[in-house]
Every structure is written in C-alpha cells, then in structure tokens.
Amino acid sequence: MRDPSPNTSRNPVVSLVTVVLASLLLPISLTGASVAIPGVAADFHSSLAADEWIVNGYDLTFAGFMLASGAFADRFGRRKVFVLGTAVFTLCSLVSALAGNIALLDASRVVAGVGAAAVLTSGSATLAQVFDGPARAKAFGVFGTTVGVGMAFGPFIAGALSTNFGWRSVFLVPAIAGAVVLALATRLPESRDPQAGRVDWAGTITFSGALTALIAALIEGSALGWTSGFNVVMYLACAVLFTLFVVVEKRQERPMFDLGLFRQPQFVSLCVGVVALVLAFTPLLVYLPSYLTAVNGQTTMHAGVDMLMLTVPTIFFPLITGYLLRWIPVRHMVTASVGLTAIGTAWLTVVHPGIGNWAALGPYAVIGIGIGVSFGVMDGAAVSSVEPERAGMAAGMFNTMRLAGEATGIAVVGSLLVNFTRVELGSKLDAFGGPYGGKPGELANALNQGQLSGPESTVPVSARAAFHQVATSAYTGGLHTALWIMAGFCAAATVLVAAVGAKSRQAAPAAEAVTQAEPDKVAA
User: Fold this and answer.
1) What phi and psi, each to the nearest 5 degrees, are found at residue 258?
2) Looking at residues 63-72, what average pLDDT do you find?
3) Which 3 state secondary structure label does DSSP give 77?
4) Helix 78-98 vs helix 169-185: angle between axes, to the nearest 10 degrees?
5) DSSP state of 132
6) Distance (Å, whole) CA 511 – CA 509
7) What confidence category does residue 516 fall into, taking pLDDT thresholds of 50, 70 and 90?
8) At residue 165, what are phi and psi to the nearest 5 degrees?
9) Is 453 exposed, middle or buried (0-12, 13-18, 19+ CB in 10 A)?
10) In what residue span(s) does the Major facilitator superfamily (MFS) profile domain sit (predicted)?
C-alpha cells in the first residue's frame, strides 16, 4: 500500500535515472577498489592487512548496516536516507582520493560502506514506491542489470583509471558521480512507512561487531599469528557479540533477523549456496588483478581487461536463465549455478605465469556463467522457500548473508593466499640474501599486493631471473591451493543444495495430498 507523504509528486524518469546511477557506483566502488591496491601499496608502503581493509572495510559495513538502513528509511523517509547515504558515500570517496596515509583511506572506506547500504536500501524502496505493476518489474530489471554491469566492468574501469591517472582517480571519479546523484536526489519523491517500528540498533551493533571481530582476526592472523593475543581477543569478542545478537533478536518484537527462518532446511541450504558462490567469486575479483599484475607484469588496465572474461557472463546469464526457467525447474538451476562455479574454480588451477587469454577463457567463463545463473534464480528461490508473509524478511536476510559472505570470503582467501605462498617459498629465499632473504612472509605479503618488481630490485641483477622464478612459482602454487579449497566448498554446497531441493520436491506432493484430504474429512 502506497503511503501518503509530504511530497507525493512522482517523476518516474528522474527517480529511475537517479537510483540507477547510484546503484552503478556501489559495485564499482567494491570491485574497482581491489585494482587500486597495487598502487596504494607502492605509495604508502602499507602492509597487506592494511590494504585488505580498503575492500573489506567497505563490504563489512555495507553488509552490517543493510537491514538497519532499510528500517531507518521506512521510518524517517526514503528520500532523506537516500540523500544522507549519497552524501556520506560521496564525501568518503573524496576523502579516499585525497588520503595521505593508509589509516585515513581505510577509515573513509569503512564509513563509505554505511553510506552505500543507505543508498541501496532506500533507492530500491523508492523505486517500489514510484512504480506500479509491469512498470515496477521493468524498473527493477534495469536496477538489477545496472548493479551487474557495475560489478562486471568495475575492475576494467578502475584499471583504466589507475593506469592512466593513478590509483586516486579510482575513488575520485565515484565522488564526482556521487555529487551528480546528490543533485538529482533532491527531486526524488519522499515516502515512508507509517507503521514502521523502531530501528533494531542492538541487533545491528552486535551483528556488525561480531562480523568485524571475525574479519579482523582473519585479516591480521596471517601477520600476527593465529594464536596471538589480538586474535584470541577477536575470537572471544566474535563469540560474545554473536551470542548477544541471538539473545537480542529473540527478544525483539520486530527483529532484524527472524532466526526462525534458519529452521527451514531449504532456506538454510540456499544461504549456504550463496555464501559458497560469493566465497569463490568475490575473492577472485579482489586478488586476481594483483596476481596478474605481479606475476605477468601487467598494467592494472590490462588486468582489468582480462577480468572481463570472468565478469561479462554475469550480465547476460540472468536473462538467459529467466528464459530457461520455462522448461527447467528452479531447484535444478540453483544446483547448476553452484556446481558450475565449483567446476570453474577447480579448472582455474590451470592458471600459471604467462598464461594466454584463450587458455584462461574456459574457467573464467564457466565461473561467470555459474554466478550469472545464480543472479537469475537465487533471490527468487530464497524468497519462495518461506511463507509469503515472511518474504520481505527472507529477502533482507538473504542479501545480508550474501554481503557478509563476501566480506568473510575476501578475508579468508586473503589469509589463505599469504600462508600458502609463504609455505611454498619456504627456505628458497635464503640463497638470495637481501631484505627478503629468510623472510618468506614479507615476500608473500608483497606478492599478494601485486608487488614483485620492487622485491626483485633488491637482489643482484644476475640473480633476478631466478628470484622471479621462485617468487612466481610460489605465488602460483599458493593460489592453486586456495582455488582447490574454494572449489571444494562449492562442491559440498552443490551436494547440499541438490539434496535439500530433491527432498523438498518429494515433500511437496505429500503436503498437497494432506491439504486436499482435509475438505473430505470435514465433509465426512
């Protein structure tokens, strides 16, 4: 039901353009930031852990404040929250572009994620308010396609900007575009939900805090040690905050998370499936550009072009999937999406220094197709797995699980890459001496930041070819091991999704038979 508001005038074209432009910036700011990491590391001489917060800090607050932002927009006005979120995102992007040290850059990215959550939730709610019927479906189709385009072309756009204008332009251009969105946002209609309840701040703070503690432990663990004092404190904080979150949500009249949904096997299996998908896909967007830059000596622009083989299928296959659903059941498409991603991730272990585009095209395309299929079916399947009156809650929880999975996946895979590369290097650096002699951990960090030319310059010219061979072989070996683990997790999720889907299909006819039998019992 459309609610009355102080400003009931609607301009569909301006509303659609404003929200779509904003939705284009958000995924570009996520996937594009990863391409800036080599340039940031070279300028600030920052650690890998500090660089990971550029991407992870943004994704973390994006996930943690998603549901709270939606509730805030419903209560206080969607246009107000959209304008506020856009202003925060734009200002933080400008601060990121002008940052003089890694601490300020990381902090601005963390706050930018809060703004992004506000923009996405209030923007989608605004479209639902402005458009009706078939027009609403078309508007959300454009909205979803735009988000996919932003994610697909983010690494390429950022690579082109970074190569030609430096890494700061990766953040400056979104700031300029954000200013344009801010100017357009003043013409959006205002709307709110008169029956909206209070914002679940207790749930938001405990959930975000638990996720932050977990990711901090994962990121810093590779440098400080997994049993260091810092990590032990973070593990305990995560456990305590998550326990408090469960307690808080059980006592809320209108909770942020309806924990009862996790008692439904089909919904849980889909959440596991989407976490497996983003655990395989998002870290590739973050770490593959650094691998290509370090091992192959590519420019960030060239690395961004290569990434298009992985990301472009995600634009087209949601539409193809929608067409195929006429003949193929949703449960089979969901299973296929996770299974294809598992196969592609395992196949990607063919990657090696100097690999040609044709050799890499197969695994890239299979992963991209799997992710594209998931974009076409996963959200609808999650919402359809619960009762209609709980669909909105299921959609919010599912998207939060996706974003939380992205943030956790980036941290997990980053730590795995550093540790596996360090193990591969072993004592091989002892023969070279210099600042990296006997310090495989430091070289592993540099490699995962896309830095190899710098470390190479510290050894004698006559030894550089051998040093290059040792470093690239170790980095490739570490990447292969991480890929096998990612593929294994996706394969396990495929089995779970397929098994639960088959069981739910068998249960459906039985439930229908019981329903049909009830009238006969009453008649008797």
Assistant:
1) -85, 95
2) 78
3) coil
4) 160
5) -
6) 5
7) very low
8) -130, 0
9) middle
10) 15-505
